[in-house]
Amino acid sequence: MDTTSSTQSLTFYDFLDRMRNPASLDLVRSIKSFIVSFSFSTANPENDGKRLQDFLLTMETSIRDHPLWDGASEEEIDSAIEGLEKYVMTKLFARTFASSHEDANTDQEISEKICLLQHFLRPEHLDIPEVFHNEASWLANPPQLHSNLKFIQLFRRQEKLISEAAYYFTNLVSAKTFIVDLDAKSLSIDGTEFEENMKTAKLAITGARIGPLPALHETPALVNPLTRMRNKATQNEPSPMLDEIVDLASQSDPGPSQGMEGNETNISGGLRYPFMEAEAGELTVGDVEKLLSLYKDVVKKYTSLSRAVRHLAISKLEPSIPHQKGTNVKQEKPEEQLEKDHR
């Protein structure tokens, strides 16, 4: 059997199988004790990382001296420590991965910044050689980038972060730092152009996130935008949709019901909004049909406006960087037999 095949056969489940052996009771107790103690201690990332590394070193010595691994090869010992690390960190995952608000905020900020950059950043802005311009992964947006790198740095077995693995990891950390600090000075782009592109990207993203209007029973939320637009009109501020809204109201004004004669709202120009000051108890059955008709018309106007704004923003952009969705860190569910067999 060659080395590759032998390595593949030494799996996490081989470690669990040995832990089920009654002779491993002392090791199992040490593992459980560490997990419980770690879980109930106050979170401190740097101290937690050192504590885990010290535990793995101590357990490696215990495993090497244990009868179950008597005469074991270095490959088998290494596999056992890998299995131990996987088991322990799976149990402590919620306690150690993205467990602080600071980490979550940093993840969000990095992801949002990459999302903005993907709308306009091109390889030439980073002086990337033309031969690599077609690489789809040069500006990917992996989720929780900061937390993943921090987790690896603190809790991955240190002797595994060497050579080629260390090289790739260091490059990833450097890329994250570059993104966090990135501004116009970091790129081959004019400062004003960079700021304008960032603003346009934000507008495009915001437009894409516009959702449906509230339901009829949440009518006050609908009124506020119209009120703001009317106020702007009285101050001679331009509003592209104001004429359409005024036209809509003049054509569809249902007039007040008998119970709301004194609650008409007069706007400049004599335009009336009879339901503005109305209370729910004052509405009649006949008013419902009129309100529904107005609601549908406003929704149509709002949808058209949203589509127009979004189209206007996106039409100014020429995205050349494909968005490659990152791969989530998947948590593998560990076998529970290790605990059951030693209860």
Automatic annotation (TrEMBL):
<feature type="compositionally biased region" description="Basic and acidic residues">
    <location>
        <begin position="330"/>
        <end position="343"/>
    </location>
</feature>
<dbReference type="Pfam" id="PF18151">
    <property type="entry name" value="DUF5601"/>
</dbReference>
<dbReference type="GO" id="GO:0005829">
    <property type="term" value="C:cytosol"/>
</dbReference>
<dbReference type="GO" id="GO:0031267">
    <property type="term" value="F:small GTPase binding"/>
</dbReference>
<feature type="region of interest" description="Disordered">
    <location>
        <begin position="315"/>
        <end position="343"/>
    </location>
</feature>
<dbReference type="GO" id="GO:0030139">
    <property type="term" value="C:endocytic vesicle"/>
</dbReference>
<feature type="domain" description="VPS9">
    <location>
        <begin position="140"/>
        <end position="182"/>
    </location>
</feature>
<dbReference type="InterPro" id="IPR045046">
    <property type="entry name" value="Vps9-like"/>
</dbReference>
<dbReference type="Pfam" id="PF02204">
    <property type="entry name" value="VPS9"/>
</dbReference>
<dbReference type="InterPro" id="IPR041545">
    <property type="entry name" value="DUF5601"/>
</dbReference>
<dbReference type="GO" id="GO:0005085">
    <property type="term" value="F:guanyl-nucleotide exchange factor activity"/>
</dbReference>
<protein>
    <recommendedName>
        <fullName>VPS9 domain-containing protein</fullName>
    </recommendedName>
</protein>
<dbReference type="GO" id="GO:0016192">
    <property type="term" value="P:vesicle-mediated transport"/>
</dbReference>
<dbReference type="InterPro" id="IPR003123">
    <property type="entry name" value="VPS9"/>
</dbReference>
<dbReference type="InterPro" id="IPR037191">
    <property type="entry name" value="VPS9_dom_sf"/>
</dbReference>
<feature type="domain" description="RABX5 catalytic core helical">
    <location>
        <begin position="29"/>
        <end position="93"/>
    </location>
</feature>
